[in-house]
Amino acid sequence: MNILITAGGTSEKIDNVRSITNHSTGRLGKEIGDTFLAQGHHVTYVTTPQAVRPTSESNLTLIEIETTKDLESALLEQFGHQTFDGIIHSMAVSDFTTETTLSEDLFIEKLAAKLTKDGDLSDLANLTEELYHSLDEIGKTIQQEKKIPSGTDRLLLFLKKNPKIIAMLREQQPQAVLVGFKLLVGVSTEELVRVGQSILAKNRCDFVLANDLEEIHGDQHIGILIDKQGHTETAQTKNEIAKLIVKKVEEKWRNQ
């Protein structure tokens, strides 16, 4: 099988020396990659600089990215010249990316200038509309500094929503066995399964691995694999999760 795996966590730049990221280590993705490789499959592994990655082998192709935009471009480039039998989208993708950054003084100056040049703002509806319009314009301010000065008491960071990478995977690779992932924190098993099922249906996945951060400690990593029929199987460690995913993807691919 020709397998694509995304793993690790994307990072969104604030300036040339600072970024926003998450705590993903890529350890689960590495385990899944190693398990597919051990079964003789070819793996294209898309990951981030700080994440761990599978042991190098002749049938492993590594692609390194940083931002969500990088990820989108890398995937579209791969989809343009090869077809995948399975896609394991385990990467922790940033929901937001930086739009611009302003000091407190500059933000207040820009907002005041925009509001005072407009019409009557004594009406709450008009004021609300102008605030939304002003924030939209201020958010488009070009970030000039390569390194934002640290002299301001407050730094205002504007974030805009990233595209959902998982949403394009089925459209781009309709034949692939698609495995999505959902991480929640401190929820019941019932809620974890419910949310996992909604992600599966919304993104037309074949499977979703739902897990709770509070159930990940050392070697323990409890994950619930959900299929389109609503069946669930639970694994207790990263190794068990990897073996379960590889087994289910192989079975699904053979039976298509």
UniProtKB/TrEMBL annotation:
<dbReference type="GO" id="GO:0016874">
    <property type="term" value="F:ligase activity"/>
</dbReference>
<keyword id="KW-0436">Ligase</keyword>
<feature type="domain" description="DNA/pantothenate metabolism flavoprotein C-terminal">
    <location>
        <begin position="143"/>
        <end position="250"/>
    </location>
</feature>
<protein>
    <submittedName>
        <fullName>Phosphopantothenate--cysteine ligase</fullName>
    </submittedName>
</protein>
<dbReference type="InterPro" id="IPR035929">
    <property type="entry name" value="CoaB-like_sf"/>
</dbReference>
<dbReference type="InterPro" id="IPR007085">
    <property type="entry name" value="DNA/pantothenate-metab_flavo_C"/>
</dbReference>
<dbReference type="GO" id="GO:0015937">
    <property type="term" value="P:coenzyme A biosynthetic process"/>
</dbReference>
<dbReference type="Pfam" id="PF04127">
    <property type="entry name" value="DFP"/>
</dbReference>
<dbReference type="InterPro" id="IPR011848">
    <property type="entry name" value="CoaB_strep"/>
</dbReference>
<feature type="domain" description="DNA/pantothenate metabolism flavoprotein C-terminal">
    <location>
        <begin position="2"/>
        <end position="104"/>
    </location>
</feature>
